[in-house]
DNA sequence: GCGGTTTATATGAAGCCGCACTTATGGCTG
DNA sequence: CAGCCATAAGTGCGGCTTCATATAAACCGC
């Protein structure tokens, strides 16, 4: 174990991995979230739209997991998005407990448009870094994710 | 510009930097947040406690920025934490608009204890990765933060 | 194919968050 | 020092998230 003592002169959080991750995520995404705000689209709605991009029918629980939300939150979010005509729910044919969620035409075009803006923002972000660093970023993050995928069961 | 088209067979979000960051932050922190849950401490409270560690009197706005929250949210969070005896507010002597926030003795000991648990979790997280990768993580995140520090004014 | 367990989604109550706004103080310029 | 803008903190309200729970369907062993 051997936890080093708090380095003097450095704030705890400035050397705390979880905080650095949270802050980096926040700062980078806040730039794009500002664009969403201007268009009157909430972050949660954008997450659902992007999560449904290219997916033919996600489940409610699956979407919640994807969007880093609780399942009841997703149910209500989908209620609102369905009311706005962005998504449709349809029953799963094989398992009647399951609800499949898909984009409507409106939802699809909104998702496409936002995804384009998102890619442009991403390119802009990556352009601020030296190429080697930019390369390393995604693969490092993927490595973290791979090693932290929640132990499904009996981990 | 030249935005590449959506690679076929790969979900949008699986190659989207902002999502990878958000997901990595979420997954890594959720492990520690589970510990907080068991102790009945909210994530927001922990953030404030850790933000005040080693700091002699943060401002409300400064704390909000540090904790990635809005200032009004911080005001109300501090109300609750003050009621619980974790922090104290005191007027700044030089600028009467400013309120300085500091840990109480209870708050300090809770912060110390949690920071220890956080360091242990961090060590555990880093241990799952090859040393070179673990090294790279923090410095890469710091590089991102350095290049994305919000343009204060006239950016 | 019948109970018991597990999984998927929905619901209701309670609390937190964020926006817009208000109040109070400081700082700058003429 | 008067007037004006900038900055700090607090407040009210509406909406979203969450926790705990309910309901329904599927799976599993016998």
From TrEMBL, chains A, B:
SUPFAM superfamilies named among the record's database cross-references: Winged helix' DNA-binding domain
Keywords: DNA-binding, Transcription, Transcription regulation
Gene Ontology molecular function: DNA binding; DNA-binding transcription factor activity
Pfam families in alphabetical order: MarR_2
Domain of life: Bacteria
Keyword Transmembrane in annotation: no
Claim: Repeat is one of the keywords in the record: no
Gene3D superfamilies linked: Winged helix-like DNA-binding domain superfamily/Winged helix DNA-binding domain (1.10.10.10)
All residue ranges annotated as the HTH marR-type domain in the record: 14-146
Protein name, as recorded: DNA-binding transcriptional regulator, MarR family
The organism of origin for this protein: Belnapia rosea
């Amino acid at each position: 174990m051997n936890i080093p003592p708090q380095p003097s002169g450095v704030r705890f959080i400035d050397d705390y991995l979880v905080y650095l991750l949270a802050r980096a995520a926040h700062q980078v995404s806040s730039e794009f979230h500002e664009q969403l705000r201007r268009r009157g689209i909430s972050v949660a709605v954008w997450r659902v739209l992007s999560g449904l991009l290219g997916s033919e029918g996600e489940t409610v629980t699956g979407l919640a997991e994807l969007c880093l939300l609780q399942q009841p939150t997703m149910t209500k979010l989908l209620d609102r998005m369905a009311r706005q005509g962005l998504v449709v729910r349809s029953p799963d044919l094989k398992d009647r407990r399951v609800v499949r969620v898909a984009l409507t035409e409106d939802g699809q075009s909104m998702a496409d448009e936002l995804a384009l803006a998102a890619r442009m923002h991403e390119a802009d972000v990556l352009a601020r870094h030296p190429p080697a660093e930019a390369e390393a970023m995604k693969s490092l993050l993927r490595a973290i994710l791979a090693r932290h995928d929640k132990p499904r069961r009996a981990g």
